[in-house]
């Protein structure tokens, strides 16, 4: 079984993630012996194989960043439109169900795709920052806590995280999800500022703040792999 091993300081448990695009990732603490990790993986082989079979059905074709491709923004599908201009500067605009990207001359089709990819990423980050600024303010009042700082960035293995200093990081991909899913992810991280684990007390507080959170949580488990650029 091939897997990527990710070690982090302070991690006490060994955990396994199976991603439709990236395969198997095993997370462990810096000091966890490799023999212990390999024993844990062997014991979980049946579970890993089952998750890999599920992931196979979720595997998506790589993005082409060409006109006609479908993307997600705030839970709805939009069609990519690429416009060329001598003075193209990566401007992105959303009109109805069309997401238009204006790019300049490119030396090759591959260079053109890279222009489009970078422009889209900048735009999605900007939109995520705007939405997160609004929703963190609203939901922070409901949870009864506000983070010291919110950072929106490209997170490859998780949707969000919070530090002991009260800072929250969240993936810009949340802006691709429906509003209730984005709210769930924000509430999840805000509740971690009160309960820095996944104990019954943590989930009880999430349920208190956001009754019915199970639905957006389940949506994310099923469709999270679709939130991508």
Q: What is the mean predicted local confidence, pLDDT?
A: 91
**What is the H/E string?**
EEEHHEEEEHEEEHHH
Strand arrangement in the largest pleated sheet: 4-5-7-6
User: Which stretches are poorly predicted, pLDDT < 50 over at least 5 residues?
Assistant: none
Number of helical segments?
6
What is the distance, rounded to the nearest whole angstrom, between the alpha carbons of the first and last residues? Answer: 28 Å
- Assign the structural class, choosing from mainly alpha, mainly beta, alpha/beta, alpha+beta, or little secondary structure: alpha/beta
Strand content: 15-25%
Largest sheet: 4 strands, mixed
Can you count the beta strands?
10
Oligomer state equals single chain
Radius of gyration: 20 Å
Which percent range fits the helix content?
Answer: 40-55%
What gross morphology would you assign?
globular
Structure description:
It is a single chain. This protein has 229 residues and is an alpha/beta fold. The chain has 6 helices and 10 strands. The strands form 3 sheets. Strands 4-5-7-6 form a 4-stranded mixed beta sheet, covered by helices on one side. Strand 4 and strand 5 (76-84) form a beta hairpin. Helix 3 (109-143) crosses helix 4 (179-192), helix 4 packs across helix 5 (200-209) and helix 4 (179-192) packs across helix 6 (214-223). The model has no long low-confidence stretch (mean pLDDT 91).
